[in-house]
Amino acid sequence: MPGFFASVFQWISGLFFSKQAEIAVVGLQASGKTSFVNVITSGQWSEDVVPTVAFNFRKIRKGNVTMKIWDVAGQPKFRSMWERYCNGVDAIVFVVDSLDHDKFNTARFELHQLLSQPTLSGVPLLVLGNKNDLAGHASVKELIKGLQLDKISDRPVSCSMKSQHNLDIVLQWLAGRSH
Ligand SMILES: Nc1nc2c(ncn2[C@@H]2O[C@H](COP(=O)(O)OP(=O)(O)OP(=O)(O)O)[C@@H](O)[C@H]2O)c(=O)[nH]1
Ligand SMILES: [Mg+2]
């Protein structure tokens, strides 16, 4: 019975203290955006993920925070849409494949191009250096250099959707953008 009262209390306090955060997830194709959204939604890692066409929308609840997530496709033909999905959100998550050193230049170009849009001025940004379960992945320092993140206030987070390393830090940061 105490468990029952505790869950009723949790449900009621959730109604009164619930917060919202709208998040756009962007980055080059195959960096792991959909994997990130799948893992934070279901807690389950799966290799089976198909390239996103245009976007996916997901709504999830973490504690008392409801997150509305736009998972936007990363193939070149979809990149011009990124700004539209990022406009008005509480946070942008930019995912990088930290093993794919050859694509850092392209990722840097696309990220800085996106951030130069006047509509996105001041939107909080978190860069995820994903796939750090794989040997040869870039360190945080290498990501800062490769993507010229030194002028961006929040440090990138090195993480893995496969091992779920540092996912707790990412979720904490996202919850902090809620209102
Ligand atoms: N080893 C490893 N593989 C990962 C990780 N995250 C994603 N992948 C793999 O990377 C590939 C691409 O993942 P997606 O989540 O589809 O990438 P995406 O960024 O959504 O790609 P688009 O939808 O095309 O823009 C898949 O084969 C995933 O299984 C990770 O942390 N570690
Ligand atoms: Mg995807």
TrEMBL record:
Where in this chain does the entry annotate a coiled-coil region? Answer: none
The superkingdom of the source organism is Eukaryota
Q: Which UniProt keywords apply?
A: GTP-binding, Magnesium, Metal-binding, Nucleotide-binding
Q: Which InterPro entries match?
A: Arl8a/8b (IPR044154), P-loop_NTPase (IPR027417), Small_GTP-bd (IPR005225), Small_GTPase_ARF/SAR (IPR006689)
Q: Which residues bind Mg(2+)?
A: 34, 52
What does the entry give for GO biological process? protein transport
Q: Which GO terms label this protein's molecular function in UniProt?
A: GTP binding; GTPase activity; metal ion binding
At which positions is GTP bound? 27-34, 74, 130-133
Q: Name one Pfam family in it.
A: Arf
Q: Which family does it belong to?
A: Belongs to the small GTPase superfamily. Arf family.
Annotated protein name in UniProt: Arl8a protein
The record lists the lineage as: Eukaryota, Fungi, Dikarya, Basidiomycota, Agaricomycotina
